[in-house]
Amino acid sequence: MKMTKEQKYRLIEQAEPGEIASLEKKVEQCHWRQEFHIQPSTGLLNDPNGFSYYQGEYHLFYQWFPFGTDHGMKYWYHLKSRDLVTWADAGIGIAPGDYFDSHGAYSGSAMAHEGKLYMLYTGNTRDRDWIRHPYQCMAVMDESGLITKWEHPVIPNVPEGYTDHFRDPKLWKDGDSFYCVIGAQRANLTGCAVLYRSTDLHTWQFQGELRTGLETFGYMWECPDYFELDGLGVLVFSPQGLEPSGDENHNIYQSGYVIGKSLDTGTRILEHGAFRELDRGFDFYAPQTMIDPQGRRIMVAWMGLPDIDCPTDPNGWAHCLTLPRELTLHEGKLIQRPIPELTTLRRKREERVADALTSESKTYTGFKGTAYELICEYDLLSAKACGIEFRASATEKTVIRYDAVSRKLVMDRSQSGEPVAASYGEIRQCAMNGDRIKLHLFVDTSSVEIFVNDGEEVFTSRIFPHPESDEIRFFADKGEALFQAVKWDFT
Ligand code: FRU
């Protein structure tokens, strides 16, 4: 059910008596609630925000609209953790409602500095004619956990040459200067990212656009994130308006990165290679990274996309975040691995040591479930293909299949259960080589994250099967394959 403007732009204090409680009841009854992913208690979750480390804890916020699954009045909802696995609920982090964020506290980032956590975010406002006026605003958390918004925005205007699509600042510090990149749309309706600099976090100077080689690359870049890894510069962003081509760009909007020499903040030149999508699955958007005390670059993303209905909408909630992944560089490409801390979730273990598969699929005792971790390695002897059918039953299955002839790894969710965004296609695929393949799956009640060959590729997707669809079938095609698998339940 779509809400009216009035319903969408209410503050939480304006809830009808019992409204949130009755929504919570509806949410509880949903059989697609996740076991170990971050999800909203009611309403809609989107981008991860303010991912940071402060006073011995990881902090992670997400965009939250409490009243339903529309994109309405957005809050920053706050979680904290010592291990990136178990998250404590810290309540609302940033509430909108001031003149500079009257229509939502939109996405942004956070950085610890001199004993405080600084959060730079976009205040979304609409005037009487519903024209958007974005502001870049600051909120600060102190040692007691109290978050205070500054009285006035730090960047009150959109510079000339850009439209009101100007948001999602990502902060970092370099020497004595602070920088942020902001996602923008040029007046000619092409997307880009711009750079600001500050010496005190209060006053920010517009430096100009990042000079990438991507002059006409979509109509808007959301959620830019710049960081350095192994001495190279990486710009991650979520461009909107790219055309599908080959195996690329089949989701409604994309998320990806370019890598090059580190950004020259003076000339703003970022010499880089080709844009690559970060994920091969159906549901991945607006990732944000942080560097932790161990020096790891960790990324979390929204396991969802804008402008797509979700089968849980009628139950009053939508979407979740991905698991945290560590990013490393290998031969000019980002590698994503689930952080090792996730092994603490492992409970009951099942193992299948070296078994031969021929042209039929096999199931094994103990290898079933609706929330588990599964690592599976295949050695294609004479077989031409191999893979796994999971969350399977007589009528449903989600399939990951490696075809050694066409050299493609293909995920098929056409029979995964309740369809999602089917008009954007029900398979996703990418090129893959070799006669061995390792598939590392994190299956939750309504999602799967498949790490391929230790993070060379990742397929991240929501799936909406019946709770009874819990079989796991291993298969090889047109020949023999050797395989081994290990699985852990999470409960
Ligand atoms: C990306 C995005 C951001 C914006 C936020 C609003 O999904 O559209 O650009 O700040 O979501 O919730």
Automatic annotation (TrEMBL):
SMART domains: Glyco_32. Keywords: Carbohydrate metabolism, Cytoplasm, Glycosidase, Hydrolase. It catalyses: Hydrolysis of terminal non-reducing beta-D-fructofuranoside residues in beta-D-fructofuranosides. It is an enzyme of class 3 (hydrolase). Belongs to the glycosyl hydrolase 32 family. CDD domains: GH32_ScrB-like. The keyword DNA-binding does not apply. Enables the bacterium to metabolize sucrose as a sole carbon source. Its EC number is 3.2.1.26. One of its GO terms (cellular component) is cytoplasm. GO terms for biological process: sucrose metabolic process. It comes from the Bacteria. NCBIfam families: scrB_fam. GO terms for molecular function: beta-fructofuranosidase activity. This is Sucrose-6-phosphate hydrolase. Gene3D superfamilies: Exo-inulinase, domain 1 (2.60.120.560), Glycosyl hydrolase domain, family 43 (2.115.10.20). Residues 37-338 form the Glycosyl hydrolase family 32 N-terminal domain.
